[in-house]
Amino acid sequence: MRDRPGALAQRLIAAPAILLALGAASPQTGVDITVTVTGLRNADGVVRACMTHEPASFPKCRGVEGAQGMAVPVAESDTLTFRNVRPGRYAIALLHDENDNGKADRAALMIPSEGFGFSRDARVRMGPPRFEDAAFDVAGKPQALSIRMRYVL
Questions:
Q1: Most buried in the list 59, 71, 109, 123, measured by CB within 10 Å?
Q2: Residue 82 pLDDT level (bands cut at 50, 70, 90)
Q3: How many domains does the chain contain in total?
Q4: 3-state DSSP assignment of residue 19
Q5: Closest by Cα among 55, 128, 136 to 94
Q6: Dihedral angle of Cα 143, 67, 70, 43, to the nearest 10 degrees
Q7: InterPro entries in the record, alphabetically (predicted)?
Q8: Alpha carbon distance 119, 49 (integer Å)
Q9: Contact (Cβ atoms closer than 8 angstroms) between residue 129 and residue 19
Q10: Is the pLDDT of residue 127 over 70?
Q11: Is 63 part of any domain?
């Protein structure tokens, strides 16, 4: 049995819509990762957050494909939500940018003068922690994390 001309093209165009209607081909969009920020010493400035899956770029987000960054005024919320996160291994870095100048300020001897925090409460030694020390896995369920802000000065 032969199809009339164009019938195959019509079926190919209609197939995705039928599959979506049946729920068989709904695209996976990802999950939300909600971070509660604790230990903020004041309500000044913003909390800058970076979530990346790229070990080589951690703790930075700029110019990293698939990384998410945000800045939330401290006075507005103590929670941050990364939306539509696909499954994988990620690490989060936070900065309490008290003067909202877009950078991590430092005092003498390069000691941070603003607060910072990392997922899994990863420890800071002579610089930021390694990606693996802060990394956590994202699967198919939303997650809630808590990150404690730390201050050196």
A1: 59
A2: very high
A3: 1
A4: helix
A5: 128
A6: 60
A7: DUF2141
A8: 11
A9: no
A10: yes
A11: yes
Prior bond of 59 cis (ω within 30°): yes
Is residue 10 assigned to a domain? no
Domain assignment present for residue 60? The answer is yes
pLDDT tens profile 21-67: 333 333 458 999 999 999 999 999 999 999 999 999 999 888 888 89
Predicted TM-score (pTM) of the model is: 0.79
CA–CA distance, 49 with 132 (Å, rounded to integer) = 18
Widest pairwise Cα distance in the chain: 83
Domain range spanning residue 104?
A: 31-148
Q: Residue 100 sits in a domain of what CATH number? A: 2.60.40
- Say whether pLDDT at 69 is over 80: yes
Asked whether residue 20 is assigned to any structural domain, the reply reads: no
Q: Using an 8 Å Cβ cutoff, are 33 and 85 in contact?
A: yes
What pLDDT score was predicted for residue 60? 86
